[in-house]
Amino acid sequence: MPTPAFLPVSSQGTVKTLIPEELKDIGITIILSNTYHLYLRPGIDVIEKLGGLHRYMAWDGPILTDSGGYQVFSLARLCQVADEGVTFRSHIDGSEHRLTPELVVEFQQKLGADIIMTLDECPAIDTSMAKVREAVDRTYCWAERCRERHRGSDQLLFGIIQGGIFPELRQQSAKAITSLDFPGYAIGGLSLGEPKEQTWSMLDETMPFLPADRPRYLMGVGSPEDIIEGISRGIDLFDSALPTRVARNGALFTVQGRVNIRKAIYKTKEQPVDADCDCYTCRTFSAAYLHHLFKCEELLAYRLATMHNLRFIIRLMQQIENAIQQGTFAAFKSDFLSQYQVTDEEVRLAQKQKWLNSPRHCDDTAL
Amino acid sequence: MPTPAFLPVSSQGTVKTLIPEELKDIGITIILSNTYHLYLRPGIDVIEKLGGLHRYMAWDGPILTDSGGYQVFSLARLCQVADEGVTFRSHIDGSEHRLTPELVVEFQQKLGADIIMTLDECPAIDTSMAKVREAVDRTYCWAERCRERHRGSDQLLFGIIQGGIFPELRQQSAKAITSLDFPGYAIGGLSLGEPKEQTWSMLDETMPFLPADRPRYLMGVGSPEDIIEGISRGIDLFDSALPTRVARNGALFTVQGRVNIRKAIYKTKEQPVDADCDCYTCRTFSAAYLHHLFKCEELLAYRLATMHNLRFIIRLMQQIENAIQQGTFAAFKSDFLSQYQVTDEEVRLAQKQKWLNSPRHCDDTAL
Lengths: 367, 367
What we know:
The first copy, chain A, is of the alpha/beta class.
């Protein structure tokens, strides 16, 4: 698996709108899938019975599954956290379920992913230091139990660092988790609405503790401007639904920043959305056609936009890799960020989009 | 263009969910697009400015455009018919527009389609004989005017036969329209909710008047069982949104009839939806996976189902052609229809789906 790599999100066993062949054409080498979603639908046992997740979704490249922890804390209802594990109600039908460190390893083994994640407690960004400290301690205990259950398996089990926005806790978590000697480490609990400076400052607190010879994975980060910042701090792996989600909203990446293809200026634009882009969409269609599909809410719109945004990210990763190899990364980063405009609206949405309702969701009581 | 052929419907310049390369892989040789829809969005002039419809939607095979008449009579609001033409209000924003025979030829010329259609008056199935007679007369006058405006163009202009469910009027319309010597003829105003026996009986009244050396096109018909009946009566061309529309509802064609992929029996079915099918979907995914995508309302579901249903129709056309060439069509038809079950529900929906509200839509007063 070449790094740095970006993992598109295949929440329910599909990178929305695309088939595996298209992901490969775009240059995707590894994808992420969500244990939480697959557990609820179609059920872990269904996928196991059908030969595992690779076969189910016809993807023969590497798959990383998360543990389900993040979704339980952000998406599910009425979660209750205790040392044993976490109970939650399905966001689909309200039915009650339970995850423990042992169960999430078992689920991910049944799914047959190549890289699997430990169960972590991921507090909302406005959680008190005392509560985050508890989450850090629990995340460590859970990581240990995951490792124990995982012993003897061929899958790569990655540990997850937590610690919220508290430097001391980030360091504590990094030291504790790395002491368990995982083959890779993820940094969780960031990019949840905190200001960007805080994201990078937390990363700067954490990175020195992560061994450079193991993959370092920044969870839930995937905008062009954040990927370049992450790589410049030593991150190897990123996953995020952002490129595909904003694509379906008509926001397309260009070197100047995101553009809204629904805007009237595109109605008659004969050139592709991004003249420099080599994606299928830009090679085949005018911006005007894409504009039309979005205005008509045609399903093809979401597909073409998704292909473009994913290809933009993959090309960015390739450009970064080239720049690193040629020793010109600093100049590349500075050039890219000076051209790529992030609007106030995007900043506002990024801070708003996650977990504003989290206190209602999380009830830190006994299991 | 090989016949018999089935034209999938690309209402708004896209066969919903698919790209041109996929249509070709499926075996689609010609598509239909709707002048009415393209006139409203993005506008005929926009497509002309961008180099015509082929380039706009990146389809380099033949395109047939309809005149917009059918949509005006079935979809638009408050249409008023007069000898001069028809006025209507957009189903999107209520704005008022006008179509005349001359304008629809002009529009279709600007779109750059290969086959274009005359403007016809298409009455609802419950229209009185007197009104249908008027529509037949007007359709003839409009066909003449279209032919006049079209003179000197390279595009093939097809005439359309009307006549409702009245044998006498069907014959009258067929004689009148064929007297204008078009390079192809369409039969309109059928499959609008009338019992199937009536559809075939009207076709039987009409076909003897259509020259066998010109393509004969049955508009708006496209279920497997109807295509085989149509071909057995000499029809060469079919178009219909049915295969793609029912696909998006989870109804997939098999040799036993349509199946509803949402049903629980498919949740763990390892085989493809149709074991005999060579479409991408059946070659790649289990029925269980498709079931899951539909249950989760994943956008990929609609795309995979569309590919399957279109491929089913194309394979059916190929099988029919082979059977005709080998002189075994009668046996093939009988075998196929004895296996292919049409449920009462499908019959009920087919009779209900079109134009039950047509009297409210159509106001036969002066322009």
